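User: Study the shape:
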Amino acid sequence: MNNASGLVPRSTRYLVFLVLFLIVNEIYDTYTTQYPSIIVDLVIDEFSLQQGQYSFLLGIITLGTYFVFLSQYLADRIGRRIMLLVTLFGMGFASFWIGISTTPIEYTIASFFLAIFFSSDIWTMVMIEESPNMHRGKLVNIVLVGGCAGALLVPMLFDALVVSAGFSWRSMTWLAMLAMGFALLTVFVKETRAYEALKEKRMGGMPSARHSIGRVLSDWKEPFSLKNRARTAIIVLLGFTIGMNYYFILMGKEFLVRDRLFSQDGASDVILVMGIAAIAGYLVNGFLIDKIGRRKTITLFLICFPASVFLTVLGDGFFIYAGAAVVSMSFWNVGICSRIYCQELYPTRLRGQMAGWRSLFYAIGTTAGSLLGGIMLVATSIDLGVIFVMYSLSLVIFIPIILRFLPETKGVELASMA
């Protein structure tokens, strides 16, 4: 039976396949996002770097995430499926490059390219556009829950390969390299219904080259029109601020080992707890976002994040584990709520572009957070814990702004929004 947009819904069998495929994709995405954070201190030691020096290199690495705008914009121009293939293969290839790097420069360049691919999140667009309207949040979060296996594998493989077996930190890239082979299975993934509808609309008009250029320019300007500029400003600035707070994820283990004197095993245990908490958070988020809506759900996690950062930095013993767990749960769910929200606020022809703008400002925030953190560590007596707290408080500003200016998008029909 056709839905309200006139498009035939995907079969249950195909949706099951798609969810399973995207779960494996997300496992690689999550694994490649997080394994660099668990090898930070080992990379610093091997290349004889200081905290501040590595923080500056980290700032350069995060510049790779700026290119996410291009990959997500290309998803609007050439399709979701081909960009899913490119980014998945890229994660494997960049990890191979990291594994054979022998200097800080090689490591930085390879990590730069890894950042391009793991930050693309094309899978989110695919799942959002293919999901039934009232189950969109649940299906996206089911993929995220499955993908959390990647986060759990990071400390488990670190303990097995590096701590127990005595392999180099480079062994953490072995699993990620397999993404190159798995990417070939993208041939069985269909282009999304929403993008196919957009493509048919574009083809139906048979526009001239001049008209096509004008349409592209019009699409570029539309998010910043008088009608959309307020919501666009909120989305991109929220992305920037979330990006700044990624500094906790990047440098959290370094904080535990250097500042709180955790052992490698102890720090790995905290990271494992954070991975488990992320899974629990996605399960909660999947229910809440479709039940009470996008605005209330993101507000809840915006409140929890700074409170849990305080607990992690100032607490001791059990409270560090508890605080870090809620930090992980809140950070990743603020991120996924903002991604879903962003793509539901705009029509199909702008969805990739706006996901790209959000991701670009997230990347700028990540770079700014790392560079500013490096400056404060080198030039002042401020330590990592204080930086974490300062960054987290900036998210509170968005609570009244979101509640006042952004509409609720629960249940909106995406396929009809050409």
